[in-house]
Design goal:
The protein is of the alpha/beta class. The chain has two domains: 5-82 and 200-272, HAD superfamily/HAD-like (Rossmann fold); 87-196, 2-Layer Sandwich (Hypothetical Protein, Haloacid Dehalogenase-like Hydrolase, Chain: A, domain 2), CATH 3.30.1240.10. The chain is built from nine helices and 14 strands. Strands 5-4-3-2-1-12-13-14 form an eight-stranded mixed β-sheet. A six-stranded mixed β-sheet has the order 8-7-6-9-11-10, with helices on both faces.
């Protein structure tokens, strides 16, 4: 069956970690359009962050942002999907993170989910501090009783001594929610634990878009590099990973070149040729 949708992760897959997309990868996106294939970026970035690196005239049709919590038609900037956590989910996650001594942020609803409250344990956590500083005035210290009634997500930054153990505890404790592991885009090694509503996921939002456009799962192609791409890669009809992907994904999916060697363009060539 012919491919109709090509879905790519952004940082570390389509773009280098500084948010730059090579000319070769841009040309590959244009080739997809010429062949009638819908182009989709599926990123962990929020809309504010995505707009900083994806220009209004960038050659893409849709952007799935905040790991599937939102979907926007890029040319018109019309938001089509926004999934939020309700009060009970917020309260449950808040208690779980506090009990496990996690430094975390609670993000406001879409489209303002670059604003967040932060809750710190007071223990050293350089990546957590860097993220606070990166967002500057968009962040504020959270206080008891100030949690929003709706939130897009919780984002916990694990300290080195917490690692896999705490992630597993959180995932097991919050089974009614979507708990996602990601690698920090700042130091490229800290583990982030992100919690969303159950419907907010790259694969589910991709499925929604495919069905909206009248396409089946088998007509989709996806490419990624990190833990938060795993669900999407498992769902897609055809999947690739770049050479710089985590080992777990490289053992499961077809590999293409490193992001620095235009692996995305290589995947497009394999699909079109």
């Amino acid at each position: 069956m012919a491919n109709k949708i090509f879905i790519t992760d952004f940082d570390g897959t389509l773009a280098t970690h500084d948010g730059l997309v090579s000319q070769k990868n841009r040309e590959a996106l244009k080739r997809l359009s010429k062949n009638g294939i819908v182009r989709v970026i599926a990123t962990g970035r929020n809309l504010y962050s995505a707009r900083k690196v994806i220009s209004s005239d960038f050659p893409v049709d849709y952007v799935i942002f905040t790991t599937g919590a939102g979907l926007i038609h890029w040319p018109t900037q019309n938001i089509l999907v926004s999934h939020h956590m309700d009060q009970s989910s917020i309260d449950e996650t808040f208690e779980c993170f506090k009990e496990n001594f996690i430094d975390f942020m609670v993000h406001e609803p879409i489209p303002n989910n670059h604003f967040f409250q932060f809750f710190a344990t007071g223990l050293e956590n350089l990546d957590f501090e860097f993220r606070k500083q990166h967002y500057g005035s968009y962040s504020k210290m959270g206080l008891s009783g100030t949690l929003p009634k709706l939130a897009t997500q919780f984002l916990g930054v694990l300290r080195p001594e917490q690692s896999e153990r705490v992630y597993s505890v959180i995932k097991d404790s919050l089974r009614s929610l979507n708990v996602v592991r990601a690698t920090s885009p700042f130091d490229h090694q800290s583990i982030w634990v992100e919690v969303f509503s159950k419907r907010a996921a790259k694969d589910l939002t991709s499925q929604y878009l495919a069905e909206k456009l009248g396409f089946s799962r088998l007509e989709t192609v996806a490419i990624g590099n990190d833990y938060n791409d795993e669900g999407l890669l498992n769902w897609s009809g055809k999947s690739f990973v770049v050479e710089n992907a985590i080992d777990k994904l490289k053992s499961q999916f077809e590999s293409v070149a490193h992001v620095d060697q235009d692996g995305f363009a290589q995947a497009v060539n394999r699909v079109l040729n």
